[in-house]
Amino acid sequence: MPPQRRPPPPVEQGASSSRLPSLATFLGVAWLPAGFLAVVFGLLAALLLLPRPWNWAVVALNLASVLLPLRIPPPRWAVRFLRFSIAESRRYYPITLVYEDKDAFSQEGPHMIAYEPHSVLPFGGCAFCEHAEGMPRCLTNTYVASTSTVFICPWMRHLAYWLGCRPASREVLRRSLAAGKSIFVCPGGVQECFYMELDEDKEVVFLKKRTGFVRLAIEAGAPIVPVFAFGQTPHFRFWRPFIDWPAFLFSRTAMSSFVRRIGYVPMLVWGWLGTALPHAVPMHVVIGRPIQVPREANPSPETVQRYLQQYIAAIEGLFERYKAAAGHPAATLTVC
């Protein structure tokens, strides 16, 4: 008889509080989106409401933050805050980590942590950041591939850099892997925001044309770690103009082309009571077995495609095996 697949390990529910979120929770969990909004609207308010020269002084102060080099050591308060932020995020939702095989992560060296879905923001990625605790070292000695928008936002850019965020450019990620750092990446990227469903039980991942992360992994000989996060998409409600409503003004093909051209999906998002704080929906982040890849300086398209298909199959397998245990038995996954 063929060997039977072992059932997935049980998903243990984390502890979550039903109390109203405190100010500390708001700052710890929502600092990135809230900080970005505060900077944008703060600058607008300064320009419109403050008299000269005070309004220009505010602009100059923000410009100085943008010009300040990123590669400066984080102050102790920043390290303490980032550690608190990660711990508070894991408690708030809460985030439960499930390994298919934790012993498989005893291997040293860089890994390509390929996390799905992106959702509005991939909050489950906080468990893989440099300041996270309780994870195998190869999964937290990590840089997070991020949109370049993060690094032009005054004040927020340094906190994001100290958290481990790096521009999601091929050269930056290649150098990081060569230096022995693992890379956390959402292969579908913000393009998945275009395909997201309003139905919380319909997950969509954009993977069929995403070969770049596989190529980088093969060039570095870095195992690809499939990761799927259940419960992340409902963290925010959202409305995408001309995609959700009014959708009849432009075809979906035209909007898809527009989104690719500008590099992001215009959308209005809101969380708890309309704020930047995500809804406290429990997350279950399932970490699959690493996919071993050969090390090749110039992998052929056929080789890249073969390992991309292995990754897609691994994501689909994680989804089907764990969705019931994670509390989403009726959920479906569409791979675009």
Automatic annotation (TrEMBL):
Q: Keywords on this record?
A: Acyltransferase, Endoplasmic reticulum, Lipid biosynthesis, Lipid metabolism, Membrane, Transferase, Transmembrane, Transmembrane helix
The family database entries (InterPro entries) matched by this protein are listed as: DAGAT
> Which Gene Ontology terms cover its molecular function?
diacylglycerol O-acyltransferase activity
State any GO CC term. endoplasmic reticulum membrane
Please name the GO terms of the biological process aspect recorded for this protein, alphabetically.
triglyceride biosynthetic process
E.C. no? 2.3.1.-
Q: Which family does it belong to?
A: Belongs to the diacylglycerol acyltransferase family.
- The protein in question is named Acyltransferase
- What CDD domains is this protein classified in? LPLAT_MGAT-like (cd07987)
Q: List the transmembrane segments.
A: 20-48, 54-72
Its topology with respect to the membrane? Multi-pass membrane protein
From the Swiss-Prot or TrEMBL record, state where the protein is found: Endoplasmic reticulum membrane
Q: Does the keyword Membrane apply?
A: yes
Q: Does the keyword Cell wall biogenesis/degradation apply?
A: no
In terms of superkingdom, the source organism counts as Eukaryota
Q: What lineage does the source organism belong to?
A: Eukaryota, Viridiplantae, Chlorophyta, core chlorophytes, Trebouxiophyceae
